[in-house]
From TrEMBL:
Residue span of motif 'KMSKS' region: 245-249
Catalyzed chemical reaction(s): tRNA(Glu) + L-glutamate + ATP = L-glutamyl-tRNA(Glu) + AMP + diphosphate
Organism: Pulveribacter suum
Protein name stated in the entry: Glutamate--tRNA ligase
GO terms of molecular function: ATP binding; glutamate-tRNA ligase activity; tRNA binding; zinc ion binding
Chain span(s) of sequence motif 'HIGH' region: 13-23
SUPFAM superfamilies hit by this protein: An anticodon-binding domain of class I aminoacyl-tRNA synthetases (SSF48163), Nucleotidylyl transferase (SSF52374)
Amino acid sequence: MTTNTKVRTRFAPSPTGFIHLGNIRSALYPWAFARSQGGDFILRIEDTDVERSTQAAVDVILEGMQWLQLDIDEGPFFQMQRMDRYRAVLAQLVASGHVYPCYMSVEELDALRERQTAAKEKPRYDGTWRPEPGKVLPPVPEGVQPVLRFKTPQDGVVAWDDKCKGRIEFQNSELDDLVIARPDGTPTYNFCVCVDDIDMRITHVIRGDDHVNNTPRQIHIFEALGAAVPVFAHLPTVLNEQGEKMSKRNGAKAVTQYAAEGYLPDAMVNYLARLGWSHGDDEIFSRAQFLQWFGLDHLGRSAGQFDEAKLRWVNAQHLRALDDAQLATLVRPFVLQTGVGAGQLDHDDRLPRICALFKDRCDTLVDLAGWARLFYVDAIERNDEDAAKHLTQAPAALLEAFAAAIAAVQWDRESIAAAIKQVLKEQGAKMPQLAMPVRVLTLGTAHTPSVDAVLELLGREKILARLKSL
């Protein structure tokens, strides 16, 4: 690619299962590179595995990318809608002599591989039907539909400078002739990918390193079609917490599940970015900083390992940095999911202040919604351990005096704090003797922010009702 070529990257998932964090990182980096370079980001759905591809999987891809705000410039394109184009290019390669029909049956190929394995040779197609000058081909069997094979160069090397792994070389002699069309004429994966990347003018292919072995095949096809070979960057695998490749089979969750669990998209982008790329020692950064810093020169070469505790920590940092009004908007749907009515929130201005008070104690929007719920419902659940510790010996006279003071006080934080001090002085009690039972009675737990701040937000009516439940 020339230096003045506009950067064009792509994400090309197969909709054969839900998209998880390991998959979506392969969307994040090409998206970030395109954005950082003023280029275009294309979404292509590789749905040629008709039996396993589902619309539900496509929907999760689109929803996950929308949640993470990985906006696309073109697409989504679907390979199954491009079959006429693939067949036209196949015909072009047949006419140019780069592709030939092979009539070797599956049974013959299996027998060949068995013989090669027994002879301790690499199992591979032996070129029986490959046309060469002076070579006599076997007679064409009747009634057999051939596959189409690509004539792989037999000498020299195929190599590229990978932006993640460095120089990679394959001996052409190690590669057999690739099947690029099945007997029914449908093209195979490696061929379709090349046609798509050429037609979509892809300049940089940033994908998982499970594709490294496909790359020499694809380079040959690019060259046979007279197309520029894109820059490749093959990303190391994302491992789960057990050190296995992340997959649905190994317990990976759909990306959309993290949205439902109250994670912030910017926090997820931050966390995923650090699973294979770094900018010095920076752990927490904004989306804008990521796009300013991102490049292919600082991609990691070793596998990244998912750590949910680290993800929660990153999410907590982003949550705490949010403006309270913005945070209230984000947490509102989660509060509604706890059973609080929309009308209660619509006619109430407390939610931003509740967020301000509790966000330092929360890792996710779900955590924060759990706290917010307590300010709107009538009945609450108490922590059994806290109740046993702080309510069984609670001094009734002290709580009655506190209830009387709360019933009469002017309703602001300063006045509530002054009333608490006055009650403690009159009753000869210390703060924990009053504060701990009040916390458990009003919010169900002994672990809350400052009592006067909590009470001011909770409201006189709810406090008095909950104090009577001792």
